[in-house]
Every structure is written in C-alpha cells, then in structure tokens.
C-alpha cells in the first residue's frame, strides 16, 4: 500500500486488514525496490511449495493406484 498518511493508528489498521507492505509518500526508491524483491521472493517460494505439493500429491495418487491394482 502506498499512502501519504503517516498516522500510526491508520497504518496499524491497514496491517490488520491484510496490507503486507506500507510505503509512505514521498516514495523512497530504495524502499520500493526492497519491497518488490520481497514480493518476488514470496512468489517464488509459493511456486516452489506448490510444485512440491503437486509432486507429493502425484506420488500419493500413484501409490494408491498401485495398491488398488495389487489387491
């Protein structure tokens, strides 16, 4: 979230309502760059977790299929 508001109470409410990053105006390029890097990192982690979950879900399904065929 980017805002001119610097009231601690308002920032606190923003975080409580799901804001993950709060950037004050005037915008600081270094701060924005750091936040963008964090967001990219989070996206990459989420993609990795999703791939791992798919791998395990696939193995579980394959194992169940093999057990059903065996019995």
Can you characterise this structure?
The chain has 71 residues and is mainly α. It has one domain (2-70). 72% of the residues lie in helices and 6% in strands. It contains two helices and two strands, in the order E-H-E-H. It has helices at 8-16, 29-70; strands at 2-3, 23-24. A two-stranded parallel ribbon has the order 1-2. Helix 1 links the parallel strand 1 (2-3) and strand 2 (23-24). 0% of the residues are buried. The mean pLDDT is 81.
Q: Note the run of SSEs as H and E.
A: EHEH
Radius of gyration over alpha carbons? 21 Å
Head-to-tail CA distance between termini: 57 Å
Instruction: Give the number of DSSP strands.
Output: 2
The side-by-side strand order for the widest beta sheet comes to: 1-2
Counting structural domains, the number is: 1
Apparent shape = elongated
Helicity level, as a percent range? over 70%
Q: What is the strand content?
A: 5-15%
Estimated structural class: mainly alpha
Count up the helices.
Answer: 2
Largest sheet properties: 2 strands, parallel
Task: Based on the model shown, name its key terms.
2 helices; elongated; two-stranded parallel sheet; 71 residues; mainly alpha
């Amino acid at each position: 979230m980017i805002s001119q508001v610097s009231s601690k109470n308002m920032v606190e409410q923003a975080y409580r309502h799901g804001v993950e990053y709060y950037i004050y105006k005037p915008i600081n390029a270094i701060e924005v760059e750091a936040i963008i890097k964090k967001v990219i990192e989070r996206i990459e982690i989420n993609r990795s977790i999703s791939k791992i979950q798919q791998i395990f879900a696939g193995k579980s399904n394959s194992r169940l299929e093999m057990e059903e065929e065996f019995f």
